[in-house]
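Why show two proteins at once? Because comparison is the fastest way to build intuition. When a single record is shown, students tend to memorize it. When two are placed side by side, the eye starts asking what differs. So, the first record is below.
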Amino acid sequence: MRLEGKVIVIIGGTTGMGLSASQAFVKEGAWIVIVGRDPQDADRAIQLLGADARSFVGDATDPATAPKAIELALREFGRFDGLYHVAGGSGRKHGDGPLHDISDAGWNFTLNLNLTSLFYSNRAAIQQFLKQETGGSILNIGSILSYSPSPHFFATHAYAAAKSAVIGLTKSSAAYYAAKNIRFNLLVPALIETPMSERAVSNPEIMKFIHTKQPLDGGRVGSPSDLDGAATFFMSDESRFVTGQVLAVDGGWSVSEGQIPID
């Protein structure tokens, strides 16, 4: 029960990595508020999570969403201890791609979804922590593509730029607020089986590549639950002396060459 008594808001907590973390946090004793855009996803998640969870339907790119979710946590559970920002996604269909091909709309959409939304949630959390004078933990999700590119199959440069900026925001915030006992850390996954990864998972050539690029545990696509242990650690008091860290949960991606299939 490493999270017993803690109240955590999970932005993007109704599906994928966020939902898996939500289940893990409840099992560890937390009360949680999950945030997602789709009311049906939120309802299904609450049925799984039970009485220790509440849902808030809202878009992470709306600056009002995170403050309202934190208000819900305070109203329902009487406190606020941590924020886990998972929300984000691909801008490929909106015009992201290699730099020479990125449209203005694709750039703006991708940064809004992956960077601005995180800025909104982190700002709301830090404002509440400063008001409470209690300290707290903020955990963000990045991407391995922020510092370990894979140009053959994963050339979305606006996405990489947004996730690189998340590293800078997380580390600079960690430095600034450490004296207030407010911690900022970052998880960096590689290819995880979520709705965002459907394009890659359905492509046999990419799967052959992943077998060598993520060689751990048989060379597989990651599961959302592969991040749960690290997320629980960073949200718990076990990490009370840890801030400003970037932890890759990548199946070996960042230390492996990966072999491009040759016909």
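Second record. Ask yourself what differs from the first in the token line.
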Amino acid sequence: MDHGPLQTTSEPGIVNVVIDHPPTNLMDGSLLMGLRGLLDTIEGDPSVRVVVFRSADPDFFVMHGDVELLAGLRPAPAPVREANLAAATLERLATAPFVSIGLLDGAARGGGCELLCAMDVRFGTERAVVSQPEVAMGIVPGAGGTARWPRLVGRSRALDILLTGRDIGAAELLALGWLHALGPSESMANEAAAFAARIARIPAASVAAVKRVVSASLAGIDTALVAESNELGRLLASGAHQAPMRRFLRAGGQTRHGETTRMEALVEAMFESPDVP
């Protein structure tokens, strides 16, 4: 069964999802709608204990949000009481009754990183790299990243990651505990499969109950997501994001070559602005 860019296969207790959204696995409306459709299908299916996500793209798990689209947005800065569509969709994944596992072999920046942050467990290879470059663009990570990173790695590490926009490699991600395990591609996939198979043997009600209690122990994410959505809306309304996002695109952002060979330069290009105080 396919849900737009998400191709799925099933085995007892497990749904395997391949993200295949050429040319670069961009986190856009099509991918989000595919994820929502997948969740609509499997959230209420008690036979599903585990969902494993991997990418068909050799370079990107998921690239990031559509900067060309975001650069043109300037909504009215009206406060909201609910998280935006992207944040709400990823929160559905985070609170789903099944365990979600991400296999990262390549890059996941911006929205792609936020998608992985919303998953329960992450496995990676030595090629794994993530970042949140949104602040350099004049906004904040607005699909849950600003709210989730402190929960995953603590406040000071989160501030480092969110405010520098730097690439974080596999070894550091493992040391931070963000990655559950790290290894060569084949062994990583095998270890993730064994982990999924073990959970798939557990009664679905127990899996869901454990997730609910763990989430309750952390509490407060809804308020944080609404605060994040308000901050994102305010920054978009100001228009301050448009110039750095245009510089990002002119420097080669949102292209395979640019983001596989010179991501640090792309981030630096966004900082090169006389209008940043």
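One difference worth noting in the second protein: Residues 2-201+217-271 form a domain with the 2-enoyl-CoA Hydratase; Chain A, domain 1 fold (CATH 3.90.226.10).
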